[in-house]
Amino acid sequence: MLLCEDNEIYRIGLRVLIELEPDLVVVGEVVDVASACSLADLVDPHIVVIRQGLLPHMQEESVSALCSRDRAVLILAETESKLDLAGALRAGARGYLSRWVAAPRLVDGIRALAKDELVLDPAFARHLLQFLTTGPTGAAEIPAQLSALNPLTDRQRTVALLVAEGMTNGEIAARLSVSDATVKSHITAVLRRLGVRSRTQLAIFVNNDTARQS
């Protein structure tokens, strides 16, 4: 994992928190985006954690570069007023959490990213709607005939809603008292029934459907 954070105290805290976990390793630390891109090419981390403030105006080209080689980028947002979730998703980021997120949630989010899951702070879920009208990777990729969650069973609908809230497979499993494998199976079935290709598109669709009904 590569950390991109210019506040030394916060960066050290992140590293200590992450390295307390036996399955997580920090392979590098940098203080700016340019250094992150250069070091990422050298150490090829699976995950890059970066403070949003280091991405002025959401430099999509920088995020895209960090996402190359199938790397997962987790952006830590400082204030909701500065969010650009649409830009982050368009650039390829798969994680978007508050910089002040609780430590267990951050660790769980990092593990979920390692499993190629979408990690999104529930407080930011409404910003997914922006993504529907911000370019070719937005609404155009979601089949027009999808207008409701009716094709889903009750349990599949529940899982879809929890995915849209930004919960990881592990969190959903704990909420529903089922195994991670069962959650993964439900998500696979939901994607197939709705005709969407990823958790990101599923979350976008569910939030859009909820907004239409409200």
From TrEMBL:
- Domain HTH luxR-type: start-end pairs: 145-210
The highest taxon in the source lineage is: Bacteria
Name the SUPFAM superfamilies for this protein.
C-terminal effector domain of the bipartite response regulators (SSF46894), CheY-like (SSF52172)
Q: Gene3D superfamilies from the xrefs?
A: 3.40.50.2300
Q: Keywords in alphabetical order, please.
A: DNA-binding
Where in this chain does the record put each Response regulatory domain?
1-114
Which InterPro entries did the record assign? CheY-like_superfamily (IPR011006), Sig_transdc_resp-reg_C-effctor (IPR016032), Sig_transdc_resp-reg_receiver (IPR001789), Tscrpt_reg_LuxR_C (IPR000792), WalR-like (IPR039420)
Q: What is this protein called?
A: Response regulator transcription factor
| UniProt source species | Microbacterium deminutum
